[in-house]
Design a protein that fits this description.
alpha/beta, nine-stranded mixed beta sheet, 7 helices, globular, NAD(P)-bd_dom_sf, 24% strand, NAD(P)-bd_dom, single chain
Amino acid sequence: MNVLVIGANGQIGKFVVEQLVQEGKHKVTAMIRKPEQADALKELGADVVIGDLEGSVEDLAEAMKDHNAIVFTAGSGGSTGQDKTLLIDLDGAVKTMEAAEQQGISRYILVSAYGADQREKWSESIKPYYVAKHYADRVLFASDLNYTIIRPGGLKNEPGTGKIAVGTDLEPGSIPREDVARVIVASLQEEKTYRMAFDLIAGEHPVEDALGKL
């Protein structure tokens, strides 16, 4: 597969690029917004394309040309305002879905947030973030894309263990970013994840085993 990683300069995105390159099964392209981010990703072994989530659907579709799988790991980040949350986490995500459909790309993996599907679980302090994730998820559900929606718990920067828990009604928990990336990479061709949405936290089961039981 030719995989385009959107948000490749982010913490999860870099792990996804690195793991895909190391695995060697797929051709990897990193989509970035700033040209100065290119060298580090090229050093990991990825091709690079420039794309702006605040740009047009047509421009995003052009960036996706010659790919057949999309991984969306982008986010506005905690230091921006609610306007950027709407523009990146919601509208930016939806535009990439529309662009993928324009290009005839079916496989699409979206990194959402734990509890995004259940309003009663939303934290008051970052409620706009959950709103953005919730409605981006809903647009993807309604699309014709072969989606996987991954809703990780609290994200940690410690080394991954390769052991996870997945499901639709997990207790709150956390997970290393490295393991979120492992789940993304493993999900690309794991049919049990097709047209599925699930919560993800650290657990007791190897990634492949856990996904295979969905």
